[in-house]
Every structure is written in structure tokens, then in C-alpha cells.
Design a protein that fits this description.
The chain is built from four helices and three strands; from the N terminus they run E-E-H-H-E-H-H. The chain is 39% helix and 22% strand. With 95 residues, it is an alpha+beta fold.
Length: 95
């Protein structure tokens, strides 16, 4: 999936080394995860490596992904962990 495609986007959560959860969105999940693992995607995750993908949900477009990211970020930690537990298997390319 190319970064300039509006047809699909992803909302994701990472579990950081310190146990915290990082929520983000992207149009290219594989590339974004590679950047997180390399420590170049965000200052927050770069200081908490290693990170693992805990949750990934495909969205219809970028706007939907941004809205879902904002909604998830407002949730209490317990609700975020419930989302992680209820999530279907991760996409094969994101494992």
C-alpha cells in the first residue's frame, strides 16, 4: 500500500518497553512499523524501544483513521488494553 493512497489507512497501538501504549495512524503500516523499530518514527517510541505491535485496525480512509486515533487516545488505559485483547490477529506483514 503506497503512502499516497487515500483508499485505506490504519490505526495502530504499540506496546513499548516500559509497558506504555503508543497510538498512531498511517497509510503504510509496514513502513511505519519499520520506522518505529529503527527509532525514527517518533521521539516517544524512540526512547522506549523495543516496541511491539499490539493492535492494528484497517480504516476506510485517512480521515477515519485520524478520528479513530483521537478516540482511542481519549480512552482510559483499561479500555485501550481491552481493545488490544479483543483485536483480531495482526496482519501478516505487520507481525
Amino acid at each position: 500500500m503506497s503512502a499516497d493512497s487515500d483508499s485505506e489507512a490504519w490505526v495502530y497501538m504499540l506496546r513499548c518497553r516500559d509497558g506504555s501504549l503508543y497510538t498512531g495512524w498511517t497509510v503504510d503500516l509496514e513502513r511505519r512499523l519499520a520506522r518505529h523499530h529503527a527509532g525514527t518514527a517518533s521521539r516517544y517510541t524512540a526512547s522506549r524501544l523495543p516496541v511491539t505491535l499490539a493492535f492494528a485496525q484497517p480504516m476506510t480512509d485517512r480521515t477515519a483513521a485520524r478520528r479513530e486515533e483521537a478516540r482511542i487516545k481519549r480512552l482510559p488505559r483499561a479500555a485501550k488494553l481491552a481493545l488490544v485483547r479483543q483485536a483480531p490477529e495482526r496482519p501478516a506483514h505487520a507481525a
